[in-house]
Amino acid sequence: xxxxxxxxxxxxxxxxxxxxxxxxxxxxxxxxxxxxxxxxxxxxxxxxxxxxxxxxxxxxxxxxxxxxxxxxxxxxxxxxxxxxxxxxxxxxxxxxxxxxxxxxxxxxxxxxxxxxxxxxxxxxxxxxxxxxxxxxxxxxxxxxxxxxxxxxxxxxxxxxxxxxxxxxxxxxxxxxxxxxxxxxxxxxxxxxxxxxxxxxxxxxxxxxxxxxxxxxxxxxxxxxxxxxxxxxxxxxxxxxxxxxxxxxxxxxxxxxxxxxxxxxxxxxxxxxxxxxxxxxxxxxxxxxxxxxxxxxxxxxxxxxxxxxxxxxxxxxxxxxxxxxxxxxxxxxxxxxxxxxxxxxxxxxxxxxxxxxxxxxxxxxxxxxxxxxxxx
Length: 375
Known about the structure:
By secondary structure, the chain is mostly helical. Helices cover 48% and strands 5% of the residues. The protein has helices at residues 8-18, 22-29, 33-41, 49-56, 60-63, 86-109, 128-138, 149-155, 191-207, 217-231, 234-240, 247-257, 261-270, 276-288, 305-316, 321-328, 332-336, and strands at 110-111, 159-162, 173-177, 180-185, 372-373.
């Protein structure tokens, strides 16, 4: 086998992931901007790879790898696209590329839950509330609170990744890649807001699968309505309210439904359970108590069960974050930023290192599907 050749697409990806302009990379490498343009255009077969490795922080093997799986800008609808610079957008799109490569590697080596999402994109006039109620029925949620939304999505085949700290200027976003649904989360928010973001992006996956490009305000509102109905079903909330509500009751209800106080008050007003006067008054009081920017007394953030289970298997099989990164030809920091801060701890000295581990089951109900090595 001959020596692998330089891949200019990989150079562009590494530069964009670092948020560098061509001129900045040229300055770091001591060349002209025109030289960098020639490297990325494929006009130069042998650019100074050692300088690129040093300047961009990617291993040599990265620049010699095959073309990566790229997601187009049109495939993702960012909620705050107008406030993002082109460099910020390119950096985030580069993150999705590494997540897809990690996801492909996982699928090649482990059996994971397959997508189990109904298609609510047809008819296109399906009401978000009806879609949410239908999903609750399909997934057997009925009128109960969704105690752990992130594991629920993972259990139904949605691959959820966290966004690295440096990319948290963007809200959550989602997209379909062939038959696989993906959600990327900004985990720098409160646990309640993250749950609402998950429900919001789930709505896009279910209801707006055929929509390409920037989603309209009406579609965003549909996603918000779906999220409210999924997390706080109307009939169940009506059944809970007996007599006249006080603001103190809001705190009890929001803990029960695991949503923010602001979202709960919005829902009460939406269902006409409280008056417009109560809505305005309570929102002012919540703002004064800090509930607009945070969630005093909030719930603990949900954890990814899929990655927890996966990392346990990897540890037992002798894998480390650096070894996986080496397999994917990317820096280990990229993996760390995508898996919710989880890490592959070293295996104990007496740990099993067989390539065929026992199936691991979560004993809590409902059970999380076990992962196993693909033979």
